[in-house]
Amino acid sequence: MVYDVCVIRSGPAGGVLSKELAEAGAKVALVEAGRMMTGQGFHYHAWPYQRAYAQRLEAYGPRSAYPARGY
Question: What angle do CA 40, 43, 45 make, to 5 degrees?
Answer without folding.
Answer: 140
